[in-house]
Amino acid sequence: MATQHSRSAARFMMAPAVILLLGWMLVPLVMTLFFSFKKYLPLRGDSMANGLDWVGFENYVRFVSSSSFWPSIWATLIIVGGVLFITVILGIALALLLDQPMWGQGVVRILVIAPFFVMPTVSALLWKNMFMDPVNGFFAHMMKSVGMQPIEFLSQHSLLSIVMIVSWQWLPFATLILLTATQSLDGEQLEAAEMDGASWPSRFIHIILPHLSRAITVVILIQTIFLLGIFAEIFVTTGGAFGTKTLTYLIYQRVLESQNVGLGSAGGVYAIILANIVAIFLMRIVGKNLDA
Questions:
Q1: What is the value of pTM for the model shown?
Q2: What domains lie within the chain, and their CATH numbers?
């Protein structure tokens, strides 16, 4: 049993790492809050004279009053919701399929999981140039071979295209988590249900799906955290055009393209608020499965 002395020694040894971690987290947050109340234009001509003028909540009002603000919020939520829907549904299907005995099962699993290790920029360029290009892309050649007119996916179906690209990246993660949960399922329970005459849809709804509920919750929570900050895929495909400008991309435009650090910092605070609202909503809706 740990003594008071050993606990104090453990806290003392952990203190440097904890302080470093808190500093790494809090310093950028404090700086974001500080600059959000300032007029900070570092690369403009008036940056020396008026670079750090106090403007109060002016940046917040300007950012939320922008015509791009609410469309960026909706674009962000649509992309997050679409990716979650696709990855959870297909992830369950792939997990059940990969759990079945097959020849070369290990190789197949590695191939399914491999896209998760591809950098977002690389995967977005791959989809843009090799699959969705209206002239030389794979989809264009397939449609031409059957006498159809190629579709310009990134301009005509931009949000759907982004959802497809990001879903391809995150599907292996969902599959891996759900496959692990599937392998822990009691096979005798399924065999007993089958012997009692339960159909496969009935076994799936009443046995398999409840067993996967905790894994589905983990997939949704983790993916949502990362998907709210989606940027690279949009940057290298549409550049924020055609209604694909997310909140993160809008902040990038304000900070780097417009060189308005104060306005971009206010947008960063809005992004933090949005992330917390979504996280609280998800924890209330699906997070209770973690306590079950």
A1: 0.81
A2: 67-259 (1.10.3720.10)
